[in-house]
Amino acid sequence: MAGGYAGKFLRVNLTEGSWGDFTLDDDTLKRFIGGSCLAAKLFLDRYSLDADPLSPENPLMIMTGPMVGSGFPGTSRFSVCARSPQTGIWAESACGGTFGPDLKRTGYDGVVIEGRSQGPVTLTIDDSGVRITDASSLWGRDIYEVTDEIKAHDKSVKVLAIGPAGENLARIAAIGNDKGHFSGRAGLGAVMGSKNLKAVVVRGTSAKAAKADDEGFKLAMKTAMQEIKDSALAEGLHMMGSDANMDLGMVTGDVPVKNWTSGGEFDLASNLSGPTMREKYLTKAHACTNCPIACKRVVKVDDGPYTTEEGPGPEYETCAVFGTMMMNPDLTAVIKANEFCNRYGMDTISCGSAIALAMELYEKGEITKDRLGGLDLSWGNMDAVLKLVRQIAYREGFGDILADGAVHAARRLGGSAMDAVVHVKGLEAPMHDPRGFHGMGLAYMMSNRGACHLQHFVLATEQGMASWPQLFDMKDDYEGTTSEGKAWLVYNSENYGILANSLSICHYVAYAIRPETLRDAFNAITGFGFDFADLLSTGMRDWTLKRGFNNLLGISKKDDILPKRIMTALEEGGAAGSVPDMDLLLREYYALRGLDERGFPKEEVLLKLGLNELKERLYR
Amino acid sequence: MPIKAMTQEWMDAYKAAIQADPEYKSIAKDWEGSVSLVVNPDPAKNVPEPIYLFMDYWHGDVGEFVVCDKEKAESAKFVMTGDYARWKQVAFKELDATKALLQGKLKMRGDLPYVVRNIKTVNKVIDILGKVDTLWPDDNK
Ligand code: SF4
């Protein structure tokens, strides 16, 4: 058997209350590796695309990859996958934390959860086996409470849980691992809620996935540790967390302001930045299992209206969406909003984007105070925002309209709302403005879960955090506000970066180490003997498989489009006067990717990548 | 008339250019502390020895700007080290200094969050550096 794998997968049917194991052959593992790529393959092979995403027929897959549990830096990750209730297309959301390695040590590479339980349940997987137990007493409680309650019996277990948002089928609901790590995007918490599955609890100690080459692994591990030690990026992440981007991004035009209508708000950024969080509210840095970078923030707010106990702090995305996007200069309010979203179990990007949309419509008079149940949703009014966050999770009042995300909300609200939403394929864009970085615009258009900064390494390559000329022809430094040469950069950064979610390695670690080191560690674990070309073609297969999945659900060229707001230039800030050249980007990208006029992978591309069954389905 | 790079005359010209810049004073109002640039030798490009440059910045003003020895360079609040070719790329704006740092092409000793917080000041002094009429050691002029 290939190295690095536990060797079996768990299939649980909650309708029947049954479970069993299944295995996959080495050839399948070598071609689809693990994580979200293997999940997409399993979905296409075994499940119907016709089922409503919130129906029992939509499987929820929790998948690790071969590097998970190896001890290599950044490989604590796992991907949660399903068809998205928010977008209707492929959904995957990778998460760090503690859950992945423990799941692997129970002897499973992944879990596929089917059906729907009659009432709330917890799924427990540990060394002694699998159990489905009643979770009625946990239903209705938030993620922090549930995690504490479960850990009160055994603090060594690792917990994946949903909060009220998932229970209430908010299509922006997230799944939390041990309070501080989230599978946030595309509504996977609602899929879990639709199954009446409150929590998945794992504790694995016995199973150990053998490595193909222990000595080779030790060497790669040593090299990686040294590279991380030498990396200014890793140092910056450790000191400032992902919010190190706030100051830098405001200069370059990366940070969206006032629902994507403004830029150049340097004082605002400074108030919300990683250095400010470090100076004022950071109590310690925290790491996912086996990560020397420790980019996670633990914060505490002692004074003011938004005091919080010591707990997980916000990432950059949250600081932007509850900060600059809402014209809120108060970092303590962002920390509070982050805590609320964590507790209720909601994706901060989607939740914040929906609220920022509502703020804009309120300013325009398209939403009245009456409709908001008396809330004054003026820019920067964080008391009102925090009330609305709760209403969204519980689908109360106006919160019900926003609970399915900004696009669903805009459809219900009408007026100018749809023009004010920045999304691709139904998923709100993360907090990186494509007007400042045109390659990111293309990456948003072509990412298989909708607008996304985590299905590729474009953030690293276009913004200059990493340069990998040994992988593909690239420059040390790209100008953000040009579309020239970006299709090539995006195409290759996708082919490499998409592997993060199949190998299951953190983006930040992959940015900090050389591709040679990642390749060597991967080979030492699996024994696959991949060279760079093999890695990149595995990435191509991954991307093409998911594209085909989406094509089968009706996605085509018409959906590869940036929204009107992004195609409207800003007047100030680092991205002033700039919009991506969509035609150029798409024309060049389509040629590189081998997409036809409809936006489908061409037959010869599918055959070359060994996706024969997908070809049959797309071309029947 | 171009000035030979990384000489005292060049440092004087750089300092004068910063002082003359209409925006510098306000952009750099919060910056305090000296910066050293260490240029690694590259004999093939006519840089036979390491070069040490010391620059003192203080709340929008500039103080000592000198070519110095290793000891003085290392006394600075921030010490940035890199190969000659990288520094030249930075001066020509072919390589952004922050990106060079993140990619490991330049190394820095000092308070990274402070630099991030004051990134506009960093960008401004590099911008001005590019405007000094310079004769580089490997230029064939
Ligand atoms: S860099 Fe941060 S997110 Fe990535 S594995 Fe380390 S601690 Fe987790």
From TrEMBL, chain A:
Protein keywords: 4Fe-4S, Iron, Iron-sulfur, Metal-binding, Oxidoreductase
SUPFAM superfamilies: Aldehyde ferredoxin oxidoreductase, C-terminal domains, Aldehyde ferredoxin oxidoreductase, N-terminal domain
Enzyme Commission numbers on file: 1.-.-.-
Cofactor(s) the record lists: tungstopterin; [4Fe-4S] cluster
Broadest EC class assigned to this enzyme: oxidoreductase
SMART domains for this protein: AFOR_N
InterPro entries the UniProt entry points to: Ald_Fedxn_OxRdtase_dom2 (IPR013984), Ald_Fedxn_OxRdtase_dom3 (IPR013985), Ald_Fedxn_OxRdtase_N (IPR013983), Ald_Fedxn_OxRdtase_N_sf (IPR036503), OxRdtase_Ald_Fedxn_C (IPR001203), Tungsten_al_ferr_oxy-like_C (IPR036021), W-dependent_AOR (IPR051919)
A GO molecular-function annotation: metal ion binding
Gene3D superfamilies per UniProt: Aldehyde Ferredoxin Oxidoreductase Protein, subunit A, domain 2 (1.10.569.10), Aldehyde Ferredoxin Oxidoreductase Protein, subunit A, domain 3 (1.10.599.10), Aldehyde ferredoxin oxidoreductase, N-terminal domain (3.60.9.10)
Keyword field contains Chaperone: no
Domain named Aldehyde ferredoxin oxidoreductase N-terminal: residues: 5-206
Protein family per UniProt: Belongs to the AOR/FOR family.
Name of the protein in its database record: Putative oxidoreductase YdhV
Species of the source: anaerobic digester metagenome
From TrEMBL, chain B:
Pfam families to which the protein is assigned, alphabetical: SCP2 (PF02036)
Database matches in InterPro entries: SCP2_sterol-bd_dom, SCP2_sterol-bd_dom_sf
Alphabetized SUPFAM superfamilies for the sequence: SCP-like
Limits of the SCP2 domain: 16-116
Protein name (Swiss-Prot/TrEMBL): SCP-2 sterol transfer family protein
